[in-house]
User: Fold APC family permease from Flexivirga alba.
Amino acid sequence: MSGTGRALKRLVVGRAMRSDKLGDTLLPKKLALPIFASDALSSVAYAPDEILLTLGLAGGSFAFTHSWQITLGVVCVMAVVVASYRQNVHAYPSGGGDYEVATTNLGPKAGLTVASALLVDYTLTVAVSISSGVQNAASALPAIHGHEVIVAVFLIIGLTAMNLRGVRESGSFFAIPVYLFMLGVIALAIVGTIRKLTGDLPLAESAKFTLAPQPHMDTLGQVALVFLLLRAFSSGCAALTGVEAISNGVPAFKKPKSKNAATTLLLMGSLSVVMLVSIVTLANWTGIHIQDPDHPGNLLLNGKPVAHYNEDTVLGQLSHAVFHGFPPGVIFLAIVTGVILVLAANTAFNGFPVLASILARDGWLPRQLHTRGDRLAYSNGILILAGMAMLLVIVYGAEPTRLIQLYIVGVFVSFTTSQIGMIRHWNRNLRAENPPISPARMKRARVINAVGAVMSGTVLAVVLLTKFTHGAGYAVAAMVVLFALMVQIRRHYTRVSEELQLAESADDQLLPSRVHAIVLVSKLHKPAMRALAYARATRPSVLEAVTVDVEPEETQALQEEWERREIPVTLKIIASPYREITRPIIKYVKTIRRDSPRDVVMVYIPEYVVGHWYEQLLHNQSALRLKSRLLFTPGVLVASVPWQLRSSQGHEQDYDGPRPGSVRRGR
Amino acid sequence: MSGTGRALKRLVVGRAMRSDKLGDTLLPKKLALPIFASDALSSVAYAPDEILLTLGLAGGSFAFTHSWQITLGVVCVMAVVVASYRQNVHAYPSGGGDYEVATTNLGPKAGLTVASALLVDYTLTVAVSISSGVQNAASALPAIHGHEVIVAVFLIIGLTAMNLRGVRESGSFFAIPVYLFMLGVIALAIVGTIRKLTGDLPLAESAKFTLAPQPHMDTLGQVALVFLLLRAFSSGCAALTGVEAISNGVPAFKKPKSKNAATTLLLMGSLSVVMLVSIVTLANWTGIHIQDPDHPGNLLLNGKPVAHYNEDTVLGQLSHAVFHGFPPGVIFLAIVTGVILVLAANTAFNGFPVLASILARDGWLPRQLHTRGDRLAYSNGILILAGMAMLLVIVYGAEPTRLIQLYIVGVFVSFTTSQIGMIRHWNRNLRAENPPISPARMKRARVINAVGAVMSGTVLAVVLLTKFTHGAGYAVAAMVVLFALMVQIRRHYTRVSEELQLAESADDQLLPSRVHAIVLVSKLHKPAMRALAYARATRPSVLEAVTVDVEPEETQALQEEWERREIPVTLKIIASPYREITRPIIKYVKTIRRDSPRDVVMVYIPEYVVGHWYEQLLHNQSALRLKSRLLFTPGVLVASVPWQLRSSQGHEQDYDGPRPGSVRRGR
Assistant:
């Protein structure tokens, strides 16, 4: 059992690794690009779908005539945001990202707002990317249709195991699929363009349909159409998620860090734009129709509604059309799309614990999340993230369209706050005596960040306006709850730290006069004998063994054996009329304290050390309860005397591999 | 917050009670009957329904012509079982019940079989009784229709809170509803009979329907009908659950205990029989039709299937008919039926922890469940029972008919095993030199128990045969799993106890030579100063303060303050290149042990004592992890030095009221 258990654990969590294997490798641009860009690039797998299906609600050819406008809008925002973050990267090479920028320039409340927004968004990144990955995979593997939720949940479990195991992101395992995805999409664009030019491009599967407008759409007129355009634009802005990742990871780049990071950011933005524009163009050429899964039945074939139709993603339909007659191309693109989306989800598994650790350092989250070296700190973060993401996937049926309504609020809260912070940063630096860079450059940077702030603030307003009731409200509520929780945690820590402040006088160094030692004994076995031996070794002023008389026969047997073995310590028997253990001992300890208040009472408790958690349920429970009660009594010290059971052997090792996010942080 | 929390806790769990308030009151028969009989008597609220609806599957008037035969069969079994248990009560006045009888006479495996069966059945008692209570209440409160599951779950939560609170069963709160229920059913029988004799008895609501046979029923012929009769009989035997309760509770009776218990048992059996027969007779007179909720649509009105019909229980329909023109009678019976069914569920809340405690005493369950005085031991049992029962209620939609398919297997396993054990008991006593009672009486008792064994064995076989695929299989599977689990637990305890056995030589009393004390310090605050003071008071051979250098600035600040305050203990700084806490300390401790293996290393850890569990999440986590790792290292002692934070005040009190089952056990 124990052997099997260990083998199973090794399979899931992996062989323990030496920490010096970690090294301090820094990332060259060719590795940094795939690691930081998987989130941003992968969004072209779902952003075009969102644009087309939202516009499709108006029916007819509305999507064809307007998708270009929307795409252009998204490209503009992308350009502005990338330009803005290039300023951040230069100004804050320490990698604190938006949280640091906001905290430093706008104060802790602003920083906390960014942090809440990002924590919520990390969770959504996992849910959206995995759901979209499953949907994309379904276009090549139709067997997945109808089982999306289960497949998505299993993928999240797999990612969780991988991150608990501590896989390093910097390997080719992470870089190759990203390059293959770029290759696939660019090949799709080139082949599609050539076939279009030669008049050989087939129509997409959904081109045969027409889209009926939603019942109320045609009556609402211009205002409704503008609102629809804004909603489509909001959804399309999902392409921008992940842009901030590089600004968190500057320390991981090879020198010159800031310059390399800025270049990588520009490269990533350009790639995103090229891919997004290509896909939307191809979608128009091939006549793709996408209907909102929440408003089914407006897909018409020869004027009649289509009852049942498994809608493929835009990328899936495109590859079927463009690579028509070349199935390997279709399968290749579906696989790399699925893989890059899973990698995008993985970025959240890296970002979430790192951000949590920074927040814990600043006292906003439980301090335990800060301890970098400790696996458990990261495990907790990973498990919380995975649990929340799974809940979202289950509640929203692994439907990317529904999840995207909650998404990007967080990112744009973070963008906007950070860009406002940057304006402050430049203002302050312009007032400084000896600025590190020329005022002209700073003023130019300030203009860029100001444009970025206005742009991302506008997008945020549009997103909130068009999507609040569609789901974004829940995301905002989650952020508010997180914000309030973190404020409470910090308040608690501050209160405790004030309570524990030492006075300047030396009062606190008063020594207790004597030590009264008590060894708790229930049976005469090896752990009890060890506890007795250790207690005697400490040579206390008073030493006695204490047993509680719960079962008279057992107590008598204990007493007889005690005398037979001539143990040189008095055995005191405490009566327990109600057969309790804890209360009589507490009472006895309190009596000692009352009789000699200057004494310390040291209670020795023999404890079993076991190898498995379920064994823990079978032992030490009374000891644990007793201990937690004893600690409430002032002047009492509780000493655990461990007895290592055979099953504990081989279980003392702790895991020591790479931590999620270690590659991105460059340490 | 803390004040509100405490007020809330008091509301749910109640004000703490002194244990001497418990007293040692023993039960007179007039209190014992309602306390022990609520389970058995309440089953007449669902047993007739099960008989009629199972027979109803054959359609037509099959239920009318055969319900009498089935009822007669159930009455016979009841008579035999009651007669058998009267022998048990005389032979085993200690109240160990079937578990004791089986263990003593047939060995531990038989006892464990009975125990597994009873634990499963206690869970089902809660689920079935609550579900039936809700169904019965719905006949007077139609608003409940459609919300049965939620109402049932809330009732279970209420019972759980009541039992965690420690309500004594012996009060009038428990006795009065049972007497009112008897009164109600007997009034129903008398009024019904008078109205029948005067030709004034109205028909039941469902008398207007006819029952279509199940599609396959008319073609299967005699064999299928016999099988149906047997299934109806199995379901009707649900009336027998709870008969064994008195045999577990003999010590709670006033003297002469066994005689009083036997009389109460006879009284209970007679009452059950009278009520069951009355209800079935009235059901035939008023023409009640009940359809199986799992086979809807065979209820016909004028030859056409009835689409939607909220079927009331037999008792509900009867009271509507018999008390026609007298609504208070209807409402009264519905209320007392609901209440007695909740009390029946409450018996399981009393029986489960008591049985678990006996099993824990014998090493089959975690030892912590045995400690009688400790509230947590019972709380765990109560919470497990409530959780399992809620799960059953949710999975089976609070539908008594579906739950009853799983029920009574356990009871009849227990009946049969116990009666076989009793035969052995008399055989052994007949061989004894000076038997306490006359051989003639023993032989007569042996005959009664033998008939009981054959009868309950036959019922068990019938139940398994007719219901295994309908759900009884799950109950059997649960018993097998429980059985295996308990065997494993006992095996573990035996193994550990062998491992801990002291040798006869005095080797174990070797004293360590010196004590090397280490005080872990992260900051110079009050808890650290207290830990230092206590450690100094124990006057160890070597004393040093140790800090791990995780953040160089903090370490330096600590070192400076250390010197400024002139603390007379060396501060040792341990390097931690990977910013860990646990590993460097473990390594350091191991070095000390290697250098002087005869020393004990005593590690003093300052710990915060907090008042709320959520504060616990914010503190001590590194200390806890460190401690659990340190305990794996031989020769190490861990001393927790508590610092009581202000929030801990007022939270050290533990609850001390009556425990579930204390009244039944007579202690």
Notes: Chain A has a mean pLDDT of 84. The radius of gyration of chain A is 32 Å.
